Amino acid sequence: xxxxxFLPSFLLLRRNWRMAARCITALxxxxxxxxxxxxLGARLLPIARVEATLWGMILSFLIFASLGLWAFHERRxxxxxGWIWGSALLSIGALLLIGPRP
Amino acid sequence: MSGKAKxxxxxxRQSMAWIHNWLGLLAGWIVFAMFLTGTASYFxxxxxxxxxxxxxxxxxxxxHAAETAVAHMQRTSPDDRQxxxxxxDDRTAETRIFAMPRPDxxxxxxxxxxxxxxxxxxxxxxxARETRGGEHFYRFHFQLQLPHPWGRWLAGLCAIFMLAxxxxxxxxxxxxxxxxxxxxxxxxxxxxxxAHNVTAVLALPFHAxxxxxxxxxxxxxxxxxxxxxxxxxxxxxxxxAYGTEPDGEASxxxxxxxPIGPLVDAASHxxxxxxxxxxxxRNPNDAAATVTILRSVADRLNARGDSITYSxxxxxxxxxxxxxxxxxxxxxVMLGLHxxxxxxxxxxxxxxxxxxxxxxMVGTGLxxxxxxxxxxxxxxxxxxxxxxxxxxxxxxxxxxxxxAYLLANRLIPADLTGRQDMxxxxxxxxxxxxxxxxxxxxxxxxxxEALGLSALAFAALPLVNMATTDRGPVASxxxxxxxxxxxxxxxxASAALLGFGAWRASRAKAAPxxxxxxxxxxxxxxxxAAREVADAA
Lengths: 102, 537
Prior knowledge:
Chain A is mainly α. Chain A is built from three helices and no strands.
């Protein structure tokens, strides 16, 4: 490991990279998933769109907080990243496919 | 419970304890400042009144205040695009107005004019010292004195950390009921843990409510995506949810504005006695003028008031806010719970004390972090020193800054221009200046001195108030002025509390024996981790 002389030691620890990925997944991924899931719920709920929109906005914070906490509880990073980023991509993708309420 | 379920539960409580530590550590100092300034904001109008001691306005009816305000604006700016009028109520004595001038096609888009305060009885502008009053604490509470929109985003990030910290804190604790009755003094780390648990558990419903509803206050900004999923334009959502009218254009045909008094009465009648809180007049003195009257929310839990819009030329009712659905009512009530505008004096003081409990919870949590990791005789690591110094800066120095803001209000000459910015600067220079100064002192002395100075600053407030105004405690007592008396009493109580803290800090023994750090996974054996959890529970 010749690079040891040029790089700060914390950059060489795999553990730290994994923790950084976990934090980004919890914060950015958790927000994206909460936004996507809440918006998809708001879009599909068969009630007045004002009401559906507001329920989505109100509940999104609970979804975000729960996902963020779970991201640090589950030991397997792949499982965390898969579920959180996966649900974010799927829900946002579905929203883009069906478009806003007519 | 089977062995497997037990270990799963222990695993969950362990991971939640770990993340609770980190959430609290990362957001703790800002959340502490948000809690303290937010707590003060429950008395926002009262603080403003205390900061303008030369004002002694007599209360008048909302209708009369509306009439005098409109007459004033007709005299000063009849051709404006919009007039905003905030009416006085039980807690605010003056009428506040501001106007939006017609945009000059040559110039940049019109900004909202500056706010002017009127005497509601006469409609004449009042002359009192310039100050931001309680508004400053209120704005800092969710904008952190940072440029828009960064302050609000940072406050929101800290609020979601707070919400997650509360959830993980509850999961970590097994013995909520027992913690309620456990407070051991002078036991170092044990005591901080007890204090943290007592304050957290004592007001748990309040803490959970306040952090969740705090996010709801700005949810349109933090979570606009459900709106985007259902509406082509956000304005369509606002119109449907809050009945906000699109800003109509002027017709160009002049028409005298209908008298405001009958409209105020008509709105109050429609609301079965509900009082008006504010009036927005668009395109005054034009045939297309509209007058929107907003309902006061001081008498109800839902902080989303109704509104009715009348034609400004004929006085005919044009539209009113739609009856709210379940979700809209829920959001409005959550907003109302956070702001506490429905609370009478007793409930308002309860809110204030609960806010202080929350502040204590956050503060003791931060202190617990250092108490847990203090190793007597060993050289502390950098992160430990950083946390310790930030704790001193947030917990012991912010109160001094808040007192300095109030002291500056009394000490800066009342007729000086630009004095309101000096008051705000006094808070931040004192807060950060003192925190910086304390870096030069050993930790234990720093705690004693910073808390002592904060206590002195609060103790000085009643004296300085007595010396610089004619509304000292004796005068207030003689004239039955409960507002100013309450302030003097609250200052002395704050001084006593901070003084007690300084005294406790001076008696603090050296920390108890060495402890392992729980977060160093390498060193923490399973047994040790189990003991950590048992301690935390």
